[in-house]
Each structure stands twice: as C-alpha cells, then as structure tokens.
Design a protein that fits this description.
By secondary structure, the protein is mainly β. Helices cover about 10% and strands about 45% of the residues. The protein has one domain: 3 Solenoid (Pectate Lyase C-like), CATH 2.160.20.10. Strand 1, helix 2 and strand 2 form a beta-alpha-beta unit.
C-alpha cells in the first residue's frame, strides 16, 4: 500500500512539473516583449500568466484560451479601448480566467452595449478590478448554465447606458452562480446596478449606492427568480432614482429558475427619495426571509411572500 501511495505522489508531482513547464509568464508594457494586452492575448497558451506593467493602454483584447491569469504588475493599469468585436475592452472567450488589479474605462459600442469585460467562455473570476464610465461594467451575454462569475473587492463606478437597450453596472445571463463579495457599485447612471439571471446569486459585504444625480432603476434585479443571498450590504436609493417602487426585485420577468432560498439578512438600506419605497419586492411563490436589516427613511421592508424579523 505504501508503495502505491509513493507512486501516486510521484505521478502528481511529475504532472505538476509538466504543467509548470508548459505555462509561461507573458509580460506586457513599454520595453517588454508584448507592448499591449492584445499582443499577449494573440500569443497566450492555456495556463499562461499575463503580467501588465502600470500605464494606460488604448487597446482591447480577445482571450481565447483557458486557464489564464491576467494581472497588474503594479497599479494603475488602465484599459481604455476602443472595444474589440464591437463588444468589450476584454472579451473573455474561454473558461477559467482570472483578472486582477486592472481598470476598464470608457467602453462604448455602437448598439449601446459596450462592456469593460464581456464574459462568453465560462468560469470567470474578477479581483481588485475597477469598471469606470462604461456602458456595461461586465456583460455576460450568452447562457452558460454551468458557469460561475465571481467578483471580489472590485469597484463599479458610473456605468450604465440606455441607447436602444439597457446597459447595467453588471448584467449576468443564465449562469450557475453569480457571487459578489466585498465590492462597490456606485452612481450607476441608468438601468440597474446589478441584474442577474443566474440560478443562484450571492451579494455579500458590498455597497450598492445611488449617487445624487444619477437615475439608476433597481439596486438588484433578479428577473427570473433563482436563489438569492443578500447579506451585510449597504444599499442606498438616491433622490433621482429611475424606478422609485423598489430597491430589490425578484421575478419581475417570469420565474424560470427553481427558487427555494431568498435570504436577506443584516443589510442597511437608506431611502433618500422624497417618497416611500419597498426594500424587497418578491414576485415569486417562495417566501423571502428578512432578518436583522436596518432601514433609514420611508421604507416598506417586504412586498410579497415572506417574513420580516
């Protein structure tokens, strides 16, 4: 038995060495082998690490191979476009990409749906990244029912557009999971801060804040149902909100996903409008459980099935 275990460990070690040897670090920036992110994207192979020097890059990139890590060597790394394929500053066309420490700014596409990142390939992880003044911060335009989109310690500032169709701070099409943790959505110009058609959406330890002049609609829109965990967030509806009826809406476009868990706990919600509003509007048959939330201004905690305690 001990001999088999040693053989197994040796095999794992050799595979690890083979993977390490196959992967490469591609360095991007002035004086480096790759002057732009798009040049690195054209050369990247599965498993590579792309490290981008600080600076502003008037460039866009299509990432078409899996298991890439794309990160800033030092901040700020600003990607400003124009967009690729009429879509985004970065088009994530393969699964298991991780993007860390970048800023995506000013994405515009003629149909009005340009994005900082367009996610089309599967699992995507975003960490310590900023999305500023884009039509969409992140857009997942295709249905990938097994995929996860994880966003951690990131900022979405003054995104959103309404040119033919709504563009949001973040739009997730049908995914297995959208998880947002320790992030901030602020001053979304119009449409929703977060719109998620994921089967499960988790938003935790995050700020979702209207600005004083912007006209965003909902703070969180879960249009097709699905499980929702909304915990320990700070949520603010501003004086010029585009939709005054509610902050969080579940099931407004028909229930497509199984909905069993609607857990809304320990959030702080502030209504700055001159009229009352609803914190959670639940249009599903599943009961929402609201627990330990704090309210400032004129607020009805819950409309629809559920309990408030």
């Amino acid at each position: 038995m001990r001999g088999l275990m040693l053989l197994f460990l040796a095999l794992v070690f050799s595979l690890s060495l083979a993977f390490s040897a196959a992967s490469t670090t591609l360095r991007v920036g002035p004086g480096e082998r790759f002057p732009t992110p798009s040049a690195a994207a054209a050369a990247a192979r599965a498993g590579d690490r792309i490290v981008i020097r600080a600076g502003t890059y008037r460039d866009c990139a299509v990432w078409g191979v899996p298991d890439l890590t794309i990160e800033a060597a030092a901040e700020p790394v600003v990607i400003t476009g124009p967009v690729c394929q009429g879509k985004a500053l970065f088009v994530a066309g393969a699964p298991r990409l991780t993007i860390t420490g970048l800023t995506f700014r000013g994405a515009i596409a003629p149909p009005g749906n340009g994005a900082g990142i367009r996610a089309e390939g599967g699992d995507l992880t975003i960490r310590r990244t900023r999305f500023e003044d884009n039509q969409n911060g992140i857009l997942t335009a295709v249905n990938i029912p097994t995929a996860t989109l994880v966003i951690e310690e990131s900022v979405f500032l003054q995104n959103g557009a309404l040119i033919g169709e709504c563009a949001h701070g973040l739009y997730a099409n049908t995914l297995a999971l959208l998880a947002i943790r320790r992030s901030r959505f602020e001053a979304t110009r119009i449409c929703h801060h977060i719109k998620s058609r994921a089967v499960r959406t988790e938003i935790i330890d995050t700020e979702i804040l209207d600005g004083p002049e912007e006209t965003a609609s909902y703070q969180v829109d879960i249009p097709n149902g699905g499980d929702l965990v909304l915990a320990r967030n700070t949520v603010r509806k501003g004086p010029r909100a585009g939709n005054m009826r509610a902050a969080v809406v579940i099931g407004a476009e028909g229930i497509r996903h199984p909905t069993t868990t609607l857990w809304i706990e320990a959030n702080r919600f502030e209504n700055l409008m001159p009229r009352g509003t609803v914190f959670v509007r639940n249009l599903t048959a599943a009961p929402a459980v609201l627990s330990g939330n704090r309210f400032l201004g004129s607020v009805t905690p819950l409309e629809g099935p559920g309990t408030v305690r």
